[in-house]
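User: what does the whole thing look like in 3D?
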Amino acid sequence: MDDNRAADKQGKFWAGGRYFGELKDQVPHGRGKLDLPDGTSYMGEWFKGRPHGEGTVIYADGSIYRGQFRLGRIDGYGKYKVTEGKAYEGLWKKGKFIRPSVEPSIKKQGREEIISIQALTFIYSSGKGIFDLNFSVGNGEVFGYLGPNGAGKTTTIRNLLGFTKPTRGRCSIKGLDCWQDSALIQKDLGYLPGEISFFDEMNGVEFLKLIGDLRGRRGNARRHSLIERFELDPSGKIRRMSKGMKQKLGIVAAFMHDPAVYVLDEPTSGLDPLMQKVFVDLILEEKKRGKTILMSSHNFEETYRTCDRAGIVREGRLVAVEDVHSLKSSQRKAYLVTLGTKEDLEILRSYGLEIGTVSQNTVEVFVSGNYGQFTAALAQCKVLGLDVATQSLEQVFLKYYGQEELVR
Amino acid sequence: MNIPLFKATSKSNWIIFVIFLAVLFMYLSIMISMYDPDDIEAITQMYELLPAGMIEAFGFDETATDLVSFIALYFYGFIVLMFPLIYCIILANRLIAAQVDRGSMAYLLASPNTRVKIVTTQALYMVISVTALLALNTVAGIAISEAMFPGEMDLPAFLDLNLVTIFLTLSISSICFFFSCLFNEAKFSLAFGAGIPVLFFIINMLRNIGDNYGWLKYLTLYTLFDPHAIVTGEQALVQTCLIFSGIALVLFGGGIFIFSRRNLYL
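Assistant: Here's the predicted 3D structure for the full assembly of 674 residues, as structure tokens:
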């Protein structure tokens, strides 16, 4: 770390001015400040001798630009204030102002909206799709996106990633339009595709290196720690990896650049229970670090363990956006009770419990929040066995899906 | 252009490149070794054993009097069109359509690079590898013929021939690439991207058969490529190259443009 030391008090002669800050190979790199003799000064992040990243430049005439830089030029989101009252705020590219855009963090009822979906509609030629979706994910929030297969989860995510152009409406991440500015958004986004398919001929190490290089990032401490954490062996050919191993590889690729926002499409599919737990811990850790996460799932339990809020989508329409804890209470669980005698069934009925199918002496009992009633009834019976029935998401959220849909 | 992607693309496609290069080298050395300056008639006699229609279809009905027109006739009339054509079809499909179909394109687009940048990198790989394939073939042709028949080769004519071949193949590759960018499913992009150039190639063989099929020349790009006329200096090289590169520019550009704005179901 010798070459990374800060320049001395007099600063370093650089670009005709004085530079104070971090250096690497005798060139400004890291955080630093440059004062030029004409009164212009730049303070912020440097990369190989050029302003790159977040920074502020104060010009000799008193005008100020604050925002993103890329390889020495104003590029990305930023605000250029010429005089009091006159400012250009929005998207910049190679030093030129492209268009005004909303500030990346909209303060809305005290909450910063990071992912914002407004009247989003995308219709496939088959007529299916997503229709008029409206929701947002706030800063530091973990949002579960629930729905059965084919409900439109992946379609929504395709729009968020800029793979498809909304038929109507819009979606944005940090104020940047998902279709127009997707490359800019990707700088700080981690994406895990729902269907894992890689470059088959590569091995895991090569793949992770390529993804890192495409992002223009060096340093792989985080990559190593993720690989260790998920007990991933990335040395083998991807083609020969098991589904779970591929999923782990995808997770490492999505998390290794430490982005601020994650979009994860069914992240735990293919993982064994132990690895699901490792993943849940990782999500909780990222949440603590203030990351914003949208993850789709058809598994309520995993959503419950990680998410703050959840949206439920059905046939392309959002049927509910609720606090996860209130979802939990409206969740309907089915228990399979094996009874000793026929009379016990009558006891259960007399307690007003919702009884499903009855086969021999095993009874299906639905419970949604009324556990007191349920346990009281059970205490009166001779119970030989008690099991939780596996259910589809529709059955779990009967309240949102409606009975008639199940009959169909 | 994105350099890491270019490297990765080269790494996963170099084997195909080497295979096609080896095939071209093999045919090239066989063809050159068959040239006998003392008895050019020998090969002509050999072809006389074949049915006349087949010889015409392969474009072997012209007469060759020296080494360069011999190679132009027997190598550039058929082999050097067919193998690079297959190479273009396979490569174009692998570069874009197969990746969209399989879904690995999602990883490329989920990086902070624009679609234009990603797809331009792939297009550049296509252009560079096709050019390299034929340039190496040119070098090998000169080396082999100088080794076997020193001083026999008319170098300027041979270089002209290869220059036009490169531009022709680039325009063919642009057709394959354009359709690779156009569809979400590899089967459609292959149907058009391979179907159209192969149709051109078959029509080119048919039109050689006889005067009855003369009108077919308006239906294929290969009409603009006449190896015999190039080596004898009867074809306007600059115009031909300009037409081929014009087609290539339009189709590569069109492919990149369409890919950058269409919906991708990744």
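In plain terms: DSSP finds eleven helices and no strands in chain B. Chain B has one domain: 3-261.
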